[in-house]
Every structure is written in structure tokens, then in C-alpha cells.
């Protein structure tokens, strides 16, 4: 039998991450109280610490930085290919 995957709302994730930052309780006790996996809560906490209110954009939505990084990688690959073609052309001509 396969378990269905539970989807949590952005607000739920943010509140869970904030609970771990208060310092009153450990992340493990918060995870147990909420009924979620400890590693999942740690991942949410880390993402919230890194991105703040911009954390958890939703399914399929990427962060702006990630989109820019992917676009730059694509452009770099194209430039490298063009450069290789020019080098081969130059070696043939000379």
C-alpha cells in the first residue's frame, strides 16, 4: 500500500518553523506535537531562516534567484558551444 503524500499550506509551514525558533521547545517536541517528521520540520526551519517571509512559494514555483541561475547556466552553455564552433572553424581556415 502506498501512503498519500500530505501537503501542508505555506502558513502552516511558517508557523511550525516559527515555533522552533521561539526557544521554549525543541524542534523534536514541536514535530511530535504537530505529528510531522522531525527532518521535515528541520528543513522547513532552515528554509524559513534563509528566506524569511519569502519561504515556501508553492508547488512548482521557483525562487527568482533559482530561475536567474538556471537562465545564466543555459546562456553559458550556449556561449561555450559557440566558442567551440568558432575554434574549430578557425583551425580549419588556418
Give a verbal description of the structure.
- The protein is elongated, with a radius of gyration of 22 Å.
- The chain has four helices and no strands.
- α1 runs antiparallel to α2 and α1 (10-21) crosses α3 (38-51).
- Helix content is 68%, strand content 0%.
- It is mainly α and 94 residues long.
Main pleated sheet: none
In percent, how helical is the residue content? Answer: 55-70%
- Percent of residues in beta strands? under 5%
Main structural class = mainly alpha
Number of helices: 4
N-to-C order of helices and strands: HHHH
> What's the CATH topology label of the largest domain?
Arc Repressor Mutant, subunit A
Question: Can you count the beta strands?
Answer: 0
Note the overall shape.
Answer: elongated
Task: Sum up the structure in keywords.
single chain; 94 residues; mainly alpha; Arc Repressor Mutant, subunit A; elongated
